[in-house]
């Protein structure tokens, strides 16, 4: 995987500051360019000149982490502004406080909108970034996208331990109960399903180089989001990586995705990676962004 450009949002709250620090750490690890964007759901009357403050914050991060930092001279006043800018990034980083306002309760949250519309991975920061990620839980569905998701997680934090987690749902079992199938037959079916999932996830684990990362695997039972959150707490993982299916509007309106439920239940940071995501298609867009100085307050190269 290649991360060349990271977009980080801030409204200068303490939670948003955590997301900026995490974004800067990741930029330093990947030698990527960090782009800062001011984005606030509610106006802050005490903040007179947010763009000037953003430029100051960019200089601070450049010096502290010895990285290249850009501060945009336009703010993300609506989600569409953020989506447009994220189109030129390999990673979007923001804090988890993107809630539904009472006056538009029937609409999606800002974070929901970004998850649905952004084509790049999104890192939602919930914790204080005191150190690099040390244990990463990868929630996999064992479908055709699983290998790419684990490969992305493997390269995202090269020094972390990886744990692949898959939850076997009880959908088929419920149908068997409704069909009045015997208890013994149901138990045999559950055992066979669990064994098959275990074999598949072990095969997935064995396909990766374990010299840099210790790769483990666990198979659970139940709702994937709930069980992944439980496993994260049990193993003290500080990052969960989860895939995201292609945006389908009517499905998104009716059902919450696994990633949306994980964002509610898990206490760790969450990295949401779209199925089939590839950074190679963004090279031209990144060059286009660099060549547009009118969108930047300045560029600072960090000092060692």
Describe this protein's structure.
With 304 residues, the protein is of the alpha/beta class. Helices cover 41% and strands 21% of the residues. The chain contains 11 helices and 11 strands. The chain has an 11-stranded mixed beta sheet, with helices on both faces. The two termini are 26 Å apart.
How are the elements arranged and paired?
Blueprint: E1 5-10, H1 14-30, E2 33-38, H2 50-65, E3 68-72, H3 79-86, E4 91-95, H4 110-117, E5 122-125, E6 135-139, H5 146-156, E7 161-168, H6 171-178, H7 183-206, E8 215-221, H8 224-235, E9 239-244, H9 249-254, H10 258-265, E10 269-274, H11 283-290, E11 296-301
Parallel strand pairs: 1-2, 1-4, 2-3, 4-5, 6-7, 6-9, 7-8, 9-10
Antiparallel strand pairs: 3-11, 5-10
Helix pairs in contact: 3-4, 8-10
């Amino acid at each position: 995987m290649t991360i060349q450009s990271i977009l980080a949002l801030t409204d200068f709250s303490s939670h948003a500051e955590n997301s900026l620090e995490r974004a800067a750490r990741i930029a330093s690890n990947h030698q990527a360019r960090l782009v800062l964007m001011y984005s606030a759901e509610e106006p802050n009357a005490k903040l007179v000149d947010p763009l000037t403050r953003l430029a100051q914050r960019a200089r601070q991060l450049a010096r502290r982490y010895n990285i290249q930092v850009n501060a945009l001279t336009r703010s993300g006043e609506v989600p569409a502004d953020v989506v447009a800018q994220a189109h030129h990034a390999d990673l979007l980083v923001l804090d988890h406080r993107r809630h539904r306002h009472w006056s538009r309760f029937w609409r999606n949250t800002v974070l929901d909108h970004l998850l649905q519309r952004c084509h790049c991975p999104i890192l939602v920061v919930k914790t204080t970034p005191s150190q690099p990620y040390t244990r990463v839980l990868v929630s996999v569905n064992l479908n055709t996208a699983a290998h790419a998701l684990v490969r992305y997680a493997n390269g995202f934090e090269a020094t972390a331990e990886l744990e692949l987690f898959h939850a076997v749902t009880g959908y088929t079992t419920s149908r068997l109960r409704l069909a009045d199938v015997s208890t013994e037959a149901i138990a045999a079916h559950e055992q066979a399903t669990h064994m098959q999932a275990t074999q598949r996830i072990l095969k997935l684990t064995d396909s990766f180089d374990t010299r840099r990362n210790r790769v483990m695997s666990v198979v659970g039972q139940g709702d994937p989001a709930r069980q992944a959150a439980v496993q994260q707490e049990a193993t003290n993982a500080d990052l969960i990586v989860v895939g995201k299916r292609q945006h389908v509007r009517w499905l998104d309106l009716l059902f919450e995705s696994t990633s949306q439920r994980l964002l509610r239940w898990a206490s760790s940071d969450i990295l949401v990676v779209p199925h089939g995501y590839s950074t190679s298609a963004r090279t031209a867009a990144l060059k286009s962004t660099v060549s547009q100085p009118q969108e930047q307050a300045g560029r600072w190269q960090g000092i060692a």
